[in-house]
Hints:
five-stranded mixed β-sheet, alpha/beta, 510 residues
Amino acid sequence: MRERERKQRLSAQEMQKMQRDWERFKAAEARRAEQEERQRQREAQQAQRAEAQRRREEEKARKAEIDRRERQERERQRAAAAAKREEDARARRAEAEERARKRSEAARKREEVRRKQEKGMDEAAALSKEVDDYVSRLDCLLSERSTGLGGRTATKVSEKFNAEGAPGIEREIARILGESVYPDGFPKCQSEVQYRPESRELIINHELPAQSVVPDSASYKFVKNRGEIQAVPRKKADVQETYARVLAQSAVRVLSESFSASPVSLVSDIVLNGFVSAIDPATGQTIRPCLLSVQVTRDLYDELLLDSDGFDSQACLKRLNAIVSPHPYDLEPVRPVVKFDLSRYKTVAGMDVVAGMDSRMDLLSLKPVEFEHLVRALFEKIGMTSMSLQETRDGGVDAVAYNDDPVLSGLCVIQAKRYKDCVNAESVYALSGTMHDKHATKGILVTTSWFGKDSRDFAERTGRMELIDGRGLKSLLKEHLGLDVLIGLPKLPRGWTRSDVGVNAEEADD
Length: 510
């Protein structure tokens, strides 16, 4: 028991010793491990310090290299910047020189353009002034006529007639008209003259200028962006109005020079027919339409004050009862006359197709402007004054006139109808309405044909209307103008005879 206890005690002691030895061993191991760890840590720290030192040295070397490279780069950049500054300076100097050159060139070009524009504008102004002066000269055709043709000139014309007869005076008047001075650029106008000593009458066929005598350009302008002179076209209406004035002044000028150069004892009347040579645009052929025809007595001419400030050639021709083309710029002809005094009115041979070989005038063959002239002349001869005429759509004439008769004085409305058939009653009713609208005291409806019963009854009821049929018109023309006319009606109303109208016609119902 004791042995066992002893053994147990010994075992316990041994175990304790072993435990202590083990703990000492463990403590020694721990210290050794700790020492090793500390040694390892010291070595690691040394290695870290060495690595850090190496890194610092490498970083330092890297930074030094970077600094060196940066210094080199800065040096290079400074050198490049200096070179760039020098290059920029050279470029700026070159640009400044180029700008100065361009400014100088631009100034030279501007000066050149300015001089060119001034020259162009001066040339355009000169051309415009030339056109204006020429048009002004056209408006002075009459005032610039030959005025010293009396006296010696008339004496020479008389001598030519005494020596050579009618051909002598014809050639001399034609020469005088041909030598008349017109503006530069105005076409040379020729005249054909015929003299009739038994009636002391000059018949002049005068060549009038074509519409090209009026410039197509109203002015000229210099177009800066194109550097050229451009014509400003004249308005068509201006061209037409100017051309109408030129024709009127040319006609009155020829009349004036012809009367001035002709002895009073030899020439009492002048008939002027104005022709224009042109190309018919429809056929391309040369045509020579008559645009103006007038007959003037010397007494009537002597009443004209051609140099008066208020004188107007167009109004003068109207006063002289001239037949003037209503559209001369369209070459619309009028019927030329040999003697235009209505008491001796004759048509040109071959123009009256209704009358055949009869040379009497057929009212139905007249142009509207000729019919208008005939109506005006008739009623002025009857006693009407201040007539204002207007052509109607049906080829007739509407007129407002004043009756100077002391009993029947007042405003009178006149309507003329160039009809071949019966005038309808509506035309008579329309005249009554016009009379009422214009407060007229009398209305006259005259026609180349006839009226129906309704029209005559209506006119009779009003008491202020007068209807004049073809027979009455023919009679009035014979009575007041001494003019024997024809009325080429295709058929006659009942009760009329062929002698009433002077032609063959079929009889018609009323």
